[in-house]
Structures are given as C-alpha cells and as structure tokens.
Amino acid sequence: MSQMFQTAGLMTVHFFRDVIRSRKTLFLGLLTLIVVGITILTHYAMANQGVPPGYGALMYAGCFSFLLPFTALFYAIAAISDEFETGTAVYLFSRPLQRHGIFIGRWLSAVLTVFVLVSVVNITAWISGGDVGFSFLLRGEAAIFLGAAAYVSLFAVISSITHRPLAVGLLVIFFWESVVAQIPFDIHVLTIKYHAVSMAGSGLPLGAETSVPLAQGMFGELFQESPHVAAVVLSGLTLIFTTVSAFRYVRTQAHRGE
C-alpha cells in the first residue's frame, strides 16, 4: 500500500512537470482566460441594460456548460491515452513501480489541474455575480471538484477502450451532456452536469432579478435533488468510472504497451 502511494506521488509530480510545459496547458489556459473575460463582459453588458446576471447564471455558463467537461476531456486523455502514443507507458511499466499507483497519480493530477482552471472562472463569476454568500462559492467549488473527478474518470474509461477518445469525448460533451440533458422524462438525471449543477445551484438564484433556483431554471420544474444527494451520486459515479478505468489501464492498456 505504501509503495502504491509513493508511486502515486511520483506520478503526480511527473504529470504536473510535463503538463505545465505542454501546449495543451497553454491552449486551455488561454481558453480559461477567454471564458473569464467573457464572464466579466457579460456581467457589465447586462448590468448596463438593467438586468445584471447573478452568480448562478454566470457560473452555469462559464463553468458547467463547457469549460469543466472540456478541460476534463483533454487532461484525461493526457493522463491515459497520451502515454501509449508517446511510449511513456512502456518506460513506466518497465520500472519497479506500482501500476495502480501510476494510474492514481496521473488521475489525481488531471482532476486537480481541471479543478484549478475551472475555479478561476467560478471565483470570477462569484465576484461579478453580486451579493451572494461565501457558502455558495464554497459549494460551487465542491461541485466543481466532484464534477471534475467524475468527468475525468468517465473520459479515462473512454480513453482506455477506444483509439479515438477525443472524438468520443466531444460527442459525450456536446450530445449527451448538452442535447440529451434537455429531453423530457428526467433523462437529464443520467448526465454528470445535472448532478454538478444540482449540488452547486440548489437554492441559488439564477439571476439577480429572479428567485428561480439555478438548477430548476436549467432543468425544469421537476428538479428535486438536494446538494447532499448530488454529492453522493457524483462520488459514486467517480468510484465506478475510476475502478473500471484503473482496471483497463493496468490490465488491457499496459499489456498493449508492452
């Protein structure tokens, strides 16, 4: 067990060192700054029209609609698929390292990187969104972390079973998490975004001029999930997806890399 955690720590440092210098991080960093700029401009543009958006609307548009799943997809691919394309996996698995520790370290690094990038936008939305309690910011941060963990785990599974994880991941983001989430009959409960928004937005007004809660405004009148239930569901999804992806990573992908 101690060897696994030592390996996980080593892989975390290794991943961060490589990621910081990568073009992928430069691209996603610039994308994050663009979303921050759009969030600020949206606030001031709507405020000048007398209808300033609240923290809930800014957070939903800036974090959960696009940036969170998009960055999770890219870093999950970096953590899982890129190793085998570059041959890094062959080197890592030839060393006396605990294979589950390799996966845990790279998975955790991806989750933390996504969390930091999306948190920049979330804090900007909270500052721009008016007089909203600090507790809502903390709940939003917690929802982003659990959402990042669930998304990275899901895309890790996809990366471990297909040679085209980017295409499949984008299909999940733009079709399942966006289009399918709007279908009636409570289909949205099968999306990660629904549970993340429920956790962050329960009781949080959608805008400064409305009392409609964020999650209810996004998913209709049938919204009933509490933040605690949403947190449990996200944690459960993360556990399931992580277990599957770890098994695939260690067994199937490692065998393919040898």
- Overall tally of domains: 1
The major β-sheet equals: none
Tally of alpha and pi helices: 12
| C-alpha geometry | globular
Q: Which percent range fits the helix content?
A: over 70%
Instruction: Tell me the β content.
Output: under 5%
Number of distinct beta strands: 0
On the 0-100 scale, what is the average pLDDT?
A: 76
What are the segments in which pLDDT stays under 50 over at least 5 consecutive residues? Answer: 84-94, 208-212
Summarize this structure as a short list of keywords or feature phrases.
258 residues; mainly alpha
Task: Tell me what you see in this structure.
The protein has 258 residues and is mainly α. It has one domain (2-257). Helices cover 77% and strands 0% of the residues. The chain contains 12 helices and no strands. The protein has helices at 2-20, 23-48, 55-64, 67-79, 81-86, 88-94, 99-128, 134-161, 165-176, 192-201, 214-219, 227-257. Mean pLDDT is 76; it is low at 84-94 and 208-212.
